[in-house]
User: Which sequence fits this backbone?
């Protein structure tokens, strides 16, 4: 739905300007946008607005590298490696358990999938030996797909979101700099520039002047209660 909206906007711009646009949408940006209220509140308050408590051991039936695992300090790491055979050895290396890669139960993709429950049990036990911060640092060089399960404060500070321009600064009506999650579509690889919304009736006089009303006419409308 988001990508369809972005394409529609780009087509409209091309019709008006004759110039085509590059449209970028990512799952990361859409996820942040879907949780923007909680993230924006956290960016203002510094407090988390979303609970983080996924159950441990929620693993795909035939893939031990798709699931959520609990760390020693009660945090969670999510694995989403849809090709378990491709990533298994590198993953075991990062666990410091290369013996698992050569284990006869797991040494082929077929065996790993057939014995997924046993592999997941071992992986869960390994995750329980180190803290969340330890795993995040350790997995920095992991080839496969993974993510830390973060609260709304942590998402607002996420390095990937910020590097891609999905957290932007905005100046409020009092001149204070704030940060907000941007819309999840980017055009021509340029991050969105945010502007504050208008205050109530902020532009009433300006709009009425553009319509040709005199200053006295605007005053008369206000006195009659027709406008604010």
Assistant:
């Amino acid at each position: 739905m988001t990508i369809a909206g972005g394409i529609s906007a780009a087509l409209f711009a091309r019709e008006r300007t004759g110039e085509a646009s590059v449209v970028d949408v990512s799952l990361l940006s859409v996820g942040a946008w879907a949780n923007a209220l909680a993230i924006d509140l956290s960016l203002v308050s510094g407090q988390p607005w979303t609970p983080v408590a996924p159950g441990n051991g929620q693993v795909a039936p035939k893939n031990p590298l798709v699931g959520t695992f609990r760390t020693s300090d009660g945090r969670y790491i999510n694995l989403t490696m849809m090709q378990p055979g491709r990533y298994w050895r590198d993953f075991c290396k990062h666990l410091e358990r290369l013996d698992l890669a050569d284990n006869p139960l797991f040494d082929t993709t077929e065996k790993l999938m057939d014995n997924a429950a046993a592999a997941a049990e071992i992986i869960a036990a390994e995750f329980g030996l180190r803290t969340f911060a330890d795993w995040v640092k350790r997995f920095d060089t992991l080839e496969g797909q993974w993510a830390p399960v973060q609260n709304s404060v942590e998402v607002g500070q996420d390095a990937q979101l910020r590097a891609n321009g999905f957290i932007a600064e905005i100046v409020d009506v009092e001149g204070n700099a704030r940060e907000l999650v941007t819309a999840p579509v980017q055009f021509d690889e340029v991050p969105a520039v945010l502007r504050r919304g208008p205050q109530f009736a902020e532009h009433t006089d300006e709009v009425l002047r553009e319509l040709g009303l005199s200053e006295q006419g605007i005053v008369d409308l206000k006195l009659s209660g027709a406008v604010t």
